[in-house]
Design a protein that fits this description.
It catalyses: S-sulfanylglutathione + O2 + H2O = sulfite + glutathione + 2 H(+). Belongs to the metallo-beta-lactamase superfamily. Glyoxalase II family. This protein is of the alpha/beta class. It has one domain (50-266): 4-Layer Sandwich (Metallo-beta-lactamase, Chain A), CATH 3.60.15.10. Helix content is 18%, strand content 32%. It has helices at 87-96, 117-123, 206-217, 240-246, 254-262, 272-279; strands at residues 2-12, 17-28, 34-36, 50-57, 62-69, 76-80, 100-105, 128-132, 141-143, 148-151, 154-160, 169-173, 184-188, 191-192, 195-196, 225-228, 238-239. The strands form 4 sheets. A 7-stranded mixed beta sheet has the order 3-10-11-12-13-16-17. A 6-stranded mixed beta sheet has the order 4-5-6-7-8-9. A hairpin with a 6-residue loop joins strand 5 (62-69) and strand 6 (76-80). The structure holds ligand L3IBWBLD.
């Protein structure tokens, strides 16, 4: 299905809002599945703006991301990588901002904390849990590479970035004129700022992680903003160009990268034995509630 429109399209960055007159290219549906929070009410309602918040859970140093299409009447919102301990904070924020949470998404099965997605489903009727099919987890939507996750007129595309775990994905904002510019990549634990996820459990593979990051993230425009699932050193955001140049692990060649990863000598996450089984059912140890 295609539509051609010439409209006043807002362009925006996460921090600054710009408005330009742009011709809107034909929209063509990609063959992979389209997960949409609502039907497009009118082909001419294209005004959209992103609300973006980066939220932090200090015990596990996890970032949760809130994105919403605030110019759309539905004010549809999504959460990426919510943590069970901070679900009430996140839901209060969503309530205060008058948003409607449609998807609670995971980038992967976390080993260091319990996801908030299952708990959110018990508190927000209609919100759907999302994780990759390759993760082997239960969720309402099992997404695959190339799928689109829509909220209002905005969308994320799904890229497979295995290596930290076999089911890791990166969510990237759309590559169309009415989508955020610069693009934003929510990399989970595949790519951290000046680091990357460990590869010593949960089907991890250094070679696979290296190939994932180089083929799926480092090929994005250099100004693409990198938003990871963790930071242990005080960083909050980076860019593709910055990580290509300065990432002390992934800027090396594959053989050197593998040696670095073999010698990380990290202790296993303290709650791993409890977190992994729980996260396979979206954080609730009750399959029916996933
Ligand atoms: N100390 C923490 C776990 C820290 C850790 O292992 N982090 C993971 C991501 S969460 S599984 C990781 O990949 N770290 C990479 C690195 O270079 O630090 C705990 O006990 O939970």
């Amino acid at each position: 299905m295609q539509s051609i429109r010439f409209l006043r399209i807002p362009r925006f960055s996460p921090n600054l809002l710009f408005f330009h007159l742009l011709p809107l290219k034909p929209i063509s549906k990609i063959p992979a599945k389209n997960f949409s929070s609502q039907m497009r009410s009118s082909p001419s309602s294209s005004s959209s703006k992103l609300l973006f918040r980066q939220l932090f859970e200090k015990e596990s140093s996890t970032y949760t991301y809130l994105l919403a299409n605030v110019s759309h009447p539905d004010k549809s919102a999504i959460l990426i990588d919510p943590v069970d301990k901070t679900v009430d904070r996140d839901l209060n924020l969503i309530r205060e901002l008058g948003l409607k949470l449609v998807y609670a998404m995971n980038t992967h099965v976390h080993a260091d904390h319990i996801t908030g997605t299952g708990l959110i489903k018990t508190k927000v009727p209609g919100a759907k849990s999302v994780i990759s099919r390759a993760s082997g987890s239960k969720a309402d939507l099992l997404i695959e590479p190339g799928d689109r996750i829509s909220f209002g007129d905005l969308f994320l595309e799904v890229r497979a970035t295995p290596g930290h775990t076999s089911g890791c994905v990166t969510y990237v904002t759309g590559d169309e004129p009415d989508q955020p510019h610069p693009r934003m990549a929510f990399t989970g634990d595949a790519l951290l700022i000046r680091g990357c996820g460990r590869t010593d459990f949960q089907g991890g593979s250094s070679k696979q992680l290296y190939e994932s990051v180089h083929s799926q993230i480092f090929t994005l425009p250099k100004d693409t903003l990198i938003y990871p699932a963790h930071d242990y050193t005080g960083f909050s955001v980076s860019s593709v160009g910055e990580e290509i140049e300065h990432n002390p692990r992934l800027s090396k060649d594959l053989e050197e990268f593998k040696k670095i990863m073999e010698n990380l000598n990290l202790a296993y996450p303290k709650v791993m034995d409890m977190a992994v089984p729980a996260n396979l059912v979206c954080g609730l140890q009750h399959p029916a509630s996933s």
